[in-house]
Structure formats: C-alpha cells, structure tokens
Specification:
- There is one protein chain.
- With 154 residues, the chain is an alpha+beta fold.
- 34% of the residues lie in helices and 25% in strands.
- It contains five helices and eight strands, in the order βααβαβββββαβα.
- The strands form three sheets. A four-stranded mixed beta sheet has the order 7-6-5-8. Strands 1-2 form a two-stranded antiparallel sheet.
- Helix 1 (18-25) crosses helix 2 (29-38).
- The longest helix is centred in the middle third of the chain and has 15 residues, at 53-67.
- It is elongated and about 65 Å long.
- The protein starts with 14 loop residues before the first strand and ends with a helix.
- The mean pLDDT is 82.
Length: 154
C-alpha cells in the first residue's frame, strides 16, 4: 500500500532537491522522481534538480483528489473491487453509536463485506432504498470486562 505523503512540513516558497523533497514529504526519492515523470513541475535544466514547494503541495493535493471516489447516498465503496457498489440483495445492517451510524453490507459483485459511516439524519434516505436491519450493539463497561477476564484466567 502506498505511503501517504505529508503536506505539513512543506514550505510554499522554498525549493527542494529531490532528496529534501522526499524527506519533507515522508516518501522515497524514487517516488519524487516518479512524480516528476508524471507531471510534477521541476527545474531539471541544471543539477541538482529542484522542486518548488508550492508545486509539490499542489501536485499531492491533485493526486489525493483524483483518488477519491464520490458515492451516492445508496452506494458503498468495495475495497476489493475498488469501485462504488450496491449491496447484494438490497440488504443493509445498521449499527448505531451516539450521533453516527455504521452501515454494513455485502458487495453484489465479489461478496466482500463493505462498511459505510453515515449520519442518523441520512439514514432515512438509505432505508427508503434498501432493507435496513437495525443491529443493537451491547455496551460493556471496562470494569465488567476486567472482572470477566480475571475469572477466565482461573
């Protein structure tokens, strides 16, 4: 899995060598060279090759935006298919936790379990489209868990 490049240490008005750019973003120098081949603006006429900080920030942000897959309210993102998918059979489980809910479904294409966090106020939109089963999550206190775990040891 690719490493996520850090934006926090990059200075907009600073020019970086390839090794410096790699160090400040937290990726390898090979990655920076690949980015230059993919269109990261760099000053390559002279040595060392320099990359402007503002160009580096813009390039990383464009990469992140290109990776995003917008979903409609009735879709899930399947990690195995790497696509937006609908639940198999229109069946969705919903587990609530305070103001948030987590929807769980099975991918109609590959059968992988998919999860999607959703706000309670958006739950009505999903329930009109799919058969939603509310799953109650039991609340355990840490004292009870500790007591049970100590009893299981003896």
């Amino acid at each position: 899995m690719p490493k996520l490049a850090k934006l926090s240490g990059i200075k907009r008005l600073h020019s970086y060598t390839i090794l410096e750019a790699a160090g400040v973003t937290g990726v390898s120098d090979r990655t920076i060279r690949t980015w230059i081949k993919q269109g990261l603006p760099a000053m390559t006429d002279e040595r060392p090759t320099l990359v402007r900080g503002d160009a580096l920030i813009a390039f990383i942000k464009r990469q992140r935006e290109a990776r995003k897959s917008p979903l409609s309210p009735n879709e899930f993102y399947c990690l195995k298919c790497r696509e937006a998918r609908k639940p198999a059979g229109g069946l969705v489980d919903c587990t609530t936790n305070g103001t948030r809910a987590k929807l769980t479904a099975i991918c109609e294409t590959c059968g992988t379990i998919m999860h999607r966090p959703i706000a309670h106020n958006c739950l009505s939109v999903v329930s009109h489209t799919y058969d939603v089963t509310m799953v109650s999550k039991p609340i355990h206190s840490s004292a009870t868990d500790h007591k049970t775990s100590t009893q299981n040891r003896h």
